Automatic annotation (TrEMBL):
Mg(2+) binds at residues 15, 106. Its EC number is 3.1.-.-. Toxic component of a toxin-antitoxin (TA) system. An RNase. Belongs to the PINc/VapC protein family. It is an enzyme of class 3 (hydrolase). Its cofactor is Mg(2+). GO terms for molecular function: hydrolase activity; magnesium ion binding; RNA nuclease activity; toxin activity. It comes from the Bacteria. Keywords: Hydrolase, Magnesium, Metal-binding, Nuclease, Toxin, Toxin-antitoxin system. Residues 12-129 form the PIN domain. It comes from Propylenella binzhouense. InterPro entries: PIN-like_dom_sf, PIN_dom, VapC_family. This is Ribonuclease VapC.
Length: 149
C-alpha cells in the first residue's frame, strides 16, 4: 500500500515503539488513534522495518502468540499504510542520517515518514532528530493535541 494524500486527513507516522506500547500496554491514546483512523480523520503510516523491530522480543522470549499479534497489526490495511523499503528510500535515509546523526533504523523511519507527507512522527524516542516541518509527538501528546475533537 502506498502513501495516499487527502487535504482533510492528517498523516501520522508510527515508530516501532508505538506498536509495542499498543499491544503490550494497551494505551488509551493509541486506541483512540486507531478509532480516528477508522473514521478517516487520520492516515497512519509505517515502514516494513517496523515488523523486524517489533518481532525481536517475541522471538527471543519464544512468545509466538505475541509475534502473530504483531504480524496482524503491522500489515497494510484500511487503517495502516505499510511502506516498502527501496533503494531510493535508503539513499534518502542516508542523506538524512548525514544531517541528523540518527541511527540507521531511525533514518529509514524518518525518510519513510517524509516520503508519505507525514507532519507528525509518533514516537517515544526523545533523541530522534526530525527535518523541519515534521513534529515528534508521544501518544499522550497526540491525544491532547490531535485526537480531541
Amino acid at each position: 500500500m502506498g502513501c495516499v494524500s487527502s487535504a482533510t486527513t492528517r498523516h501520522i507516522y508510527l515508530d516501532a515503539n508505538v506498536f509495542i506500547r499498543f499491544l503490550e500496554a494497551e494505551e488509551k491514546p493509541l486506541l483512540s488513534m486507531f478509532a480516528r483512523a477508522a473514521e478517516g480523520a487520520l492516515a497512519l503510516h509505517t515502514s516494513e522495518l517496523t515488523l523486524a523491530e517489533v518481532l525481536v522480543k517475541p522471538f527471543r522470549d519464544r512468545d509466538f502468540r505475541l509475534a502473530e499479534a504483531y504480524r496482524e497489526l503491522v500489515k497494510s490495511s484500511d487503517l495502516l499504510a505499510l511502506m516498502a523499503i527501496d533503494r531510493t528510500l535508503l539513499e534518502e535515509s542516508a542523506m538524512l542520517r548525514s544531517w541528523t546523526g540518527n541511527k540507521l533504523a531511525d533514518s529509514i523511519h524518518v525518510a519513510t515518514a517524509k516520503r508519505c507527507g507525514c507532519a507528525i512522527f509518533l514516537s517515544e524516542d526523545a533523541r530522534l532528530k526530525l527535518p523541519d516541518g515534521m513534529l515528534r509527538m508521544t501518544p499522550s501528546e497526540l491525544e491532547g493535541r490531535v485526537l480531541r475533537p
